[in-house]
Amino acid sequence: MASNQSNRRAFNRAVLFFAGFLFIHLAGVSISIAQDSMADLATGRTQMIGQPAPEWKLKEWVNSPGLEIDQLSGKVILLRFFSDQPAGAASIVDLDREFRSQGLVTVGVYVPSPMPTQVPASQVKRLATAMGFNFPVGIDSSWATVNRYWLDRADADMTAVTFLIDRKGVIRYIQPDGGYDRDSNRKGRREFESLKRQLQTLIKEEAEENEAEAVKTGSFSGQEQK
Predict the structure, then answer these.
(1) What burial class does residue 118 get, using C-beta atoms within 10 Å of its C-beta: 0-12 exposed, 13-18 middle, 19+ buried?
(2) What does the DSSP 8-state code read for residue 107?
(3) For residue range 206-221, what is the model confidence (pLDDT) as tens digits?
(4) Which pLDDT tens digit goes with each residue over 145-171?
(5) pTM greater than the 0.85 cutoff
(6) Which helix H or strand E contains 141, and what residues bound it?
(7) Residue 7: C-alpha distances to residues 1, 18, 85, 87 (Å)
(8) Upstream peptide bond of 116 is cis (omega within 30 degrees of 0)
(9) Are 189 and 182 a contacting pair, CB within 8 Å?
(10) β-strand 171-175 against 76-82: which pairing, if any?
(11) DSSP secondary-structure letter at 160?
(12) Is 210 within 8 Å of 102 (Cβ atoms)?
């Protein structure tokens, strides 16, 4: 009898031990899964994608009169933030040269680094000329515009980030650090080709939508004439 009770107690302890071990194991798995999920969400890689591009708060411009993003409605925009030593500057010039005739509007925004400070337009003009930037360049001395586009992601350099904005004013692609160059290392070339492919897609979309609108307008005109 005593032996049976002893055996039952041993059995119960074993069951409790196993149950405790299983609970701790499963809880650990659950916590790990939750952490991984939160980490995925926290990368910020899709932040602002699919959202309307914020307005620009730029009081001074070089190479152009003042611009508002609404003025460029119907155009594909390559928006590039840059500072005194911009990475990928030559590639921006190449893309602007290749796609400008197809409807691309390239816009630069100069962001003083490492902190907001008033910068003379003449200084930005010299820098833009030295880099071959003959497209519109706004001066964001107070960081009012870059703060509107700020990205909460570890790989973002807000003095080098590039945004592609479609003809409806929606952000469609973000290259976070200016690390693209067709004549650079493998990563730089890969980033450049990715940016270029996205740009080609948006240009193609614009052409197809313009053609569809032209056909639609033409069909309506034909119906009215009848």
Answers:
(1) exposed
(2) E
(3) 778 777 767 777 754 4
(4) 999 999 988 889 999 999 999 999 999
(5) no
(6) none
(7) 10, 16, 78, 74
(8) no
(9) yes
(10) unpaired
(11) T
(12) no
